[in-house]
Amino acid sequence: MTESATGRLPAGFDPVTLEVIRMRLDSIVEEMGIAMIRSSGSPVITEAGDFNTALFDPTGRIYAYSDYVQFHIGSGSVAVQNLVREIAGEPLAPGDAFICNDPHTAGASHPPDTNVISPIFHGDELIGWAQSQAHLVDVGGMTPGGFAPGAYDCYSEALRLPPGVKIFDKGEPVEWVRRILLNNVRVPALFWNDVRSLVASNNTGIQRLLATIGEFGLDDFREYTRLSFELAEQVVRDRVAKIPDGTYTAEEWTEHNGHADELYRVACAMTKRGEQITFDFTGSSEQTDGFVNCSYGALVGSVATAVVPILAWDVPFNEGVMTAFEVIAEPGSIVNPTPPAPISNGHLTTGARVSRLVTKLMNDACRGSADETVRGRTQGVWADSWTGGISAGTSDDGEYFVLFNMDGGGMGAGAQPDTDGLDCAGMMTQVNNMLPDVEMNEMLYPVLYLWKRLNIASAGHGAHRGGLGLEFAWTLHGAPSATQTVFAPSAQVVADGYGGGLPGGGSGHEILRRSNVAGLLAAGTVPTDDSLDCDTRDLLAINQSSVRVSAGDVFVQWIAGGGGYGDPLLRDPRRVAEDVRDAYITDHTASAVYGVVLADGAVDTAATARTREAMRTARIGGEPTAPVAADAAAGASAPRRAADGWYCPASGALVSTKDDWRQDAIVTTRVAADRLGEYGVRVRPRGDGQRVLLDEFYSPRCGTLLDARIRVEAATTR
User: Residue 5: which pLDDT band, with cuts at 50, 70 and 90?
Assistant: First the structure.
């Protein structure tokens, strides 16, 4: 633990002991995850790491949390706290374990994310809880895999397990509970093995924690963990204090609720006063009858997901990190729904929008800080919306299969102040996301991959480029047909850039019906875009279920990219040339977006300077009066505030003396899908209803792109 992350120790405490206990707790929750991976048979756990492990004190405060899935911070905490309240006064014993998955009563992100929580006893005293949570492949309900775009209520989505359902009693399975569970899921053997792996994870944590307490003593353990809480809280509060006081507002939009192609508003007012931040989501859309409602547990986790890497990137995570911010959400809203609202994809749609929204709010707040380190926490917005595909059917050998394809986690990260965004990085809420091996999916399921590559049309262009998403295609191999469920929550309203960086591209699915794939393979030809022919190309809805895929069809999925950082005209021309060489961008993109002229792959420096100057002139409709510095950095297009107003660091030109500099910028507004299409970025256009627009703000004196923001046309919201 660094000095910056600890502050000063009170008298009487040993810093070495503090650090050893803190790191021991971190090691324990990591070992819990290893135990789960080694005992589970599900590739969702073993290949993709879609789980979390944690230790809590008796009241539900976090001792330590593993870094597999970050938004489980909220759902895991709410699950433990609600369990503590539900079973207050009931007898407990070592070896007990409780199971829950209901988002409404247990705080789960969605029904497949199943919690197993076990009490920890030191002698006869309850001293804490071990908690393990993982996405289980099937939990019953109307649709294989637990995602139910067709559901109108939560009762259709899954078997709902509230807090207080005991699954193990003094180390033995509760048989009648086990029978009920296995009678309601499609893959009972896999389900039960995964439940046992969650119990094994908890047992590992309990054994290691008791050994630690035996080494240091219970009293010292309590005192040092209390001190860890206090130190973590103080570091976060110190950084919050460096952000200018004020109220910052922004909005995001959830697309398509499973039934209707409508947009649902996610609004937040972030108020910062002194050392405290409040996130108030009042004004968000009412809950809907589709599966995009976000549970309160997922809401808290999604907020924490964005706040922690921005303000607490080097702080050991425990309950202290959570105390510097408060989350407010109206019951009955899309971010805090009540029964019977369906909820099976709310965390990956609305919850992911919350993380994007908080990132935008923190960008606005951090840019005004006098502290250079805090200003450096700005970034392009991550794609941060899982693009899903679940395939179910019966293979040629008669075995029923459910493939929840974890390739859906291959979305691009937002660009950073000093580098491009990571390609196929996963969600901000799941930075340890792993993509499955092609060979593993082909071995376990009747599919044959045709390609798995970067989605070149997904990057948010900028001085630093947003990360690229993934694109892949497969055809059935060993099954006559499958039923497909899909969701592409970042198709129309894509991730913003920062400080002149452009938004990233969107997600989607397509099926090439009755293709020539079998003939190509029989001839020894590798299928490609150019060689594949088909009768029809079906662009699937953003959310759709019960889609039939037949042998000979080709299923294609592409995944969203992250937003860029800084005006693309500030990107080093040599890096643009490297991007063309490495096939990240085309020659056309190099010249049309970045203003870089290449001759035989090398940069024509003089022609590039002329092209960029002409592009700045075209942006503002006249000759710039302030030149852009030749060595302007990536962040030099984000306006900075001085005593006399806002200026553009790239040229030093004054932009505005008003509180909102945008009032004096030159702005162009276009339909986002059209404008980004001109940049070579693929975004799904909307049909009827509210338009998704792109506002581009330019410095009136130097022609620098200062900001580019996705905006939904004003209309009556649901």
Answer: very low
